[in-house]
Amino acid sequence: PQVSGTGQLTDYVIGPKFGFEIPAISFANEGMVTYGLSIGYQEPYAQYQPALVDPPAGAEVVEDWRVFYELARRMQLPLAYRGTAYDMQNPPCTDELIAEFVKRSPVPLERVRDFPEGHIFPERSQPAEPREPSWPHRLQLAADGMMDELRELSGTQHAASNVAPPHALDLLLVSRREHHVYNSVGHELEALKKKRPFNPAYMNPGDADRLEVEPGDFIDISTATGTVTGRVEIAEDIRRGVISMSHGFPNRRDTGDGGHGTSTAMLIDDETEFDRLSGLPRMSAIPVRVEVSRPQ
């Protein structure tokens, strides 16, 4: 448990219960398959864990779901899951939510609980069934709206100017994944900090030559929303006109031991630049201006 970079900017931090303080099931490990982080269990394994310890006396902590429940209750908004409406005056317990979540599983939660150490069950999930003959829907590949957005992005120019000043480049900032980096997790873990305590700004060698920077140099990355400082790393697999960085790092100037972080979120305008369908802010292909960072 630690106060994240986001938490450091807040007026209030709501403390959640952790691991052994709440009941849990092994579904979370299976869920990683969906997000490409794991291949999941090779066999239909499942386990239920009850809450094992109580939070420290006087700790004002709650389950994560309870925060959203209480917000909805005070706003007089109804909550439902898969068509089941919840009583907004008498909150459910975590076990009830887990049971509802896995209600359609081949093995009921009650049976999983019969095996405290976990169990490989003989049941298998049902394979995908053929579509119903009357089902009219199809995936829309290259829908008009999608193609319009791609055309817009392919012609993106920096809003401030189409002509960069000397020792500056107009580039597109794209996100990236790296080993030892997972969103905002692990920045304070000594084992990971020893590997590299910052998120480099990866550049194509040609763009680095134009900007006259070398690995380890600092650059200022700017949009109309903000400016951050990054440390250059040369990468042959980055195409010209693009700069690539991992997200989830807090801003942190060099501390003498190589410690430095660059918050790409400071460059994002989530009020005007967002996806019209999901509401998510534009987090990649962001027009930026890159200049050599001058000592302050």
Query: Nearest-angstrom radius of gyration?
Result: 24 Å
* Residue share in β-strands: 15-25%
What series of H and E elements makes up the topology? EEHEEEHEEHHEHEHEHEEEE
Helix % is 10-25%
Q: Briefly note the structural class of the backbone.
A: alpha+beta
The largest β sheet comes out as: 6 strands, mixed, barrel
Number of strands: 14
Average pLDDT: 85
Strand order in the sheet with the most strands:
9-13-10-12-11-14
Query: Helix tally?
Result: 7
List unreliable stretches of 5+ residues.
158-162
Per the principal axes of the C-alpha atoms, what is the gross shape? globular
Ends apart, CA distance between termini: 34 Å
Indicate the topology.
Blueprint: E1 15-16, E2 24-25, H1 27-31, E3 45-46, E4 48-49, E5 61-62, H2 64-74, E6 80-81, E7 84-85, H3 94-101, H4 109-113, E8 119-120, H5 144-154, E9 168-175, H6 190-195, E10 201-203, H7 205-211, E11 218-222, E12 227-234, E13 242-245, E14 286-292
Parallel strand pairs: 1-5, 9-13, 10-12
Antiparallel strand pairs: 2-4, 3-8, 6-7, 9-14, 10-13, 11-12, 11-14
